[in-house]
Amino acid sequence: MKKHHAAAFALVAGCSAAHAQEIDEALATAMGGGGGSSVTLYGVVDANVEFLSHASATGGSLVRENSGGIHNSRFGVRGSEALGGGNTAWFVLESGFNSNDGTQATAGTLFNRTAAVGLSNPRFGSLSFGLQYTAMYDILLHYDPMSFSQQYTWFPTTGSSDDFAFRARDSNSVKYVGSFGGLTAIADYSFGGDAGSFQSSAAYSGGLDYDGGTFGLAVAYDYRNGAINSTGTWTKSRNLSLSARQNIGAGEILGGYEHYLYNPTKSASVAQELFFAGVRYPVMRNLKLTAAYYYDVDKTPKMSNTWMGVLSAQYALSKRTSLYATVAYAEATRYANGTYTPVGTNDSTAFGPNQTGVTLGMFHKF
User: Fold this and answer.
1) How far is CA 167 from the centre of its chain?
2) Quick check: is 355 in a domain?
3) Which pTM value belongs to this model?
4) Contacts (Cβ under 8 Å, ≥6 apart) of 334
5) Contacts of 243 by beta carbon, 8 Å cutoff, 6+ apart
6) Beta-carbon neighbour count of residue 248 at 10 Å?
7) Is 263 part of any domain?
């Protein structure tokens, strides 16, 4: 993949798990200078075959082909132009697609993942506008043991089927990212665009991520309003996360906590807590193992608490191509009503008090 000589991509951290490493490499390049302009086509194609138990109301299993087991399939174009004085103009356009059938990930929206333009400076940071990832997504991407893999994690858009959620990205957003030594600060605001009410449908988030080399600590906060209703009020949701990581030889231990609170305009509030932990370890030069555990505490009366365990292996055939196998098991631990036990982020195939998922697949980056 073509390397960039721009600070922009160094400061737009956490765009996705697949090119997080590329962003780190760009940071080192950008801080060393550079000039001119560049435009790069990039992407990843990920496909797999999945088995799910308890995938029908009668208890039947399901075997299907999916897109995006480890990485969401996507392609994008990004470019930069050196403006002088250490300043850089940049853009990113990124589109998700389903590799199993060739359709758009979001029907009718071409660049559904990122559509942003911005200015950056290695000293002062980056300011950008458009459809962009939220601060909570950027930060938790580095602390979720499964790095938001579709198969399987309870991040980023659901913690279980009742939408224990923070939004991965926001439209109409203004975003700042700045790196100061080992500390990265991220803040974003999304304009609601409703006439007569500046706060209606608006959202904002922020976070701090400290990289101490062999360890890391982070905090993130996400707040969003619903659309204004006839009584002049709106729903409110809040997410707060605390997370940490520690290197152990060649591997690392990761974990954290997320709290979700939803305040509707009427009826009682909804609260949940998600605890997560995991280990990543390269057992061989080309083989990496990941083990993860998620526990969801649902404070709604007579609703299930749930847990999920995941074991995943990735075998690299080259720097760009890998094979992977993942197995996950989820189970309700309270009431066992079978409503909140999907192994993945989609509850459309969960019909029992427990569920097992097994995935075999491959991905190729370009």
Assistant:
1) 9
2) yes
3) 0.86
4) 303, 304, 305
5) 139, 140, 143, 217, 218, 219, 220, 254, 255, 256, 257
6) 11
7) yes
Kindly report the number of other CB atoms within 10 A of residue 231's CB atom.
8
Among candidate residues 107, 96, 110, the one with its CA nearest the CA of residue 67: 96
Token pair belonging to 273: 């807590």
The Cα angle at residue 363 between residues 358 and 366, in degrees rounded to 5: 165
Alpha carbons 185 and 86: distance in angstroms, whole number: 20
- CATH code of 305's domain: 2.40.160.10
| Nearest CA among 88, 81, 76 for reference residue 31 | 88
Per the structure, the complete domain to which residue 327 belongs is given by 8-365
pLDDT in tens, 190-206: 999 988 899 999 999 99
For residues 163 and 260, the answer to whether their CB atoms sit within 8 Å is no
- C-alpha 164/C-alpha 294 separation (Å) is 13
Q: 206-245 pLDDT, tens per residue?
A: 999 999 999 999 999 999 999 999 888 999 999 999 999 9
**Would you tell me how many other CB atoms lie within 10 Å of the CB of residue 83?**
14
**Bridge-partner residues for 141, per DSSP?**
none
For the beta carbon of residue 360, count every other beta carbon within 10 angstroms. Answer: 14
| Contacts (Cβ under 8 Å, ≥6 apart) of 360 | 48, 49, 324, 325
Tell me whether residue 125 is in a domain. yes
Cα–Cα distance, 317 to 311 (Å, whole number): 20
Q: How many residues does the chain have?
A: 366
Residue 1 lies in a domain: no
- Count of domains for the chain: 1
Bridge-based pairing of strands 321-332 and 169-180 is unpaired
**30-80 pLDDT tens trace:** 433 445 899 999 999 999 999 999 888 788 899 999 999 999 999 999 999
Name the token pair of 319.
């720097």
* Nearest one of 100, 116, 298 to 190, comparing CA atoms: 116
Angstrom distance (rounded) from CA 331 to CA 188: 36
